[in-house]
């Protein structure tokens, strides 16, 4: 079990990015949060199996036809015990 703090920069607000992240996480049984930051970036906390997190991060980096990721910072952080799901953070 691993947990990562991710900051994503690019065209990631107003294009369905948070919903995209939530779907990608749910498909892989990952937990955490995703929220928009006031500086136009998006913050993600993702937790679960390391292989599935790698798949998630690859999907996030790739985006879709509306999403464009220019930069992504990924740092390991402390696991949150008993986290149950992946949700939008506010």
Q: What is the element layout, followed by pairings?
A:
Layout: E1 2-11, H1 17-27, E2 31-36, E3 42-48, H2 50-62, E4 68-76, E5 86-88
Parallel strand pairs: 2-5
Antiparallel strand pairs: 1-3, 1-4, 2-3
Helix pairs in contact: 1-2
Description:
The structure is a single chain. The protein has 90 residues and is an alpha+beta fold. It has 2 helices and 5 strands. A hairpin with a 5-residue loop joins strand 2 (31-36) and strand 3. The model has no long low-confidence stretch (mean pLDDT 95).
Query: What value does the Rg take, in angstroms?
Result: 12 Å
Q: Biggest β-sheet: count, sense, barrel?
A: 5 strands, mixed
Order of helices and strands: EHEEHEE
Strand content: 35-45%
Number of strands: 5
Q: Judging from the principal axes of the Cα atoms, what is the shape?
A: globular
Mean pLDDT: 95
Low-confidence spans: none
Helix and strand composition category: alpha+beta
Intertermini distance: 25 Å
- The helix count comes to 2
Q: Percent of residues in helical segments?
A: 25-40%
Strand order of the largest sheet: 4-1-3-2-5
């Amino acid at each position: 079990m691993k947990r990562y703090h991710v900051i994503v920069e690019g065209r990631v607000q107003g294009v369905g990015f948070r919903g995209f992240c939530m779907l990608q996480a749910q498909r892989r049984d990952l937990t955490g949060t995703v929220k928009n930051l006031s500086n136009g970036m998006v913050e993600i906390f993702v937790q679960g199996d390391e292989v599935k997190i790698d798949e998630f991060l690859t999907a996030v980096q790739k985006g879709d036809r509306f999403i464009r990721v220019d930069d992504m910072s990924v740092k390991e952080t402390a696991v949150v015990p008993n986290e149950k799901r992946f949700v939008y953070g506010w």
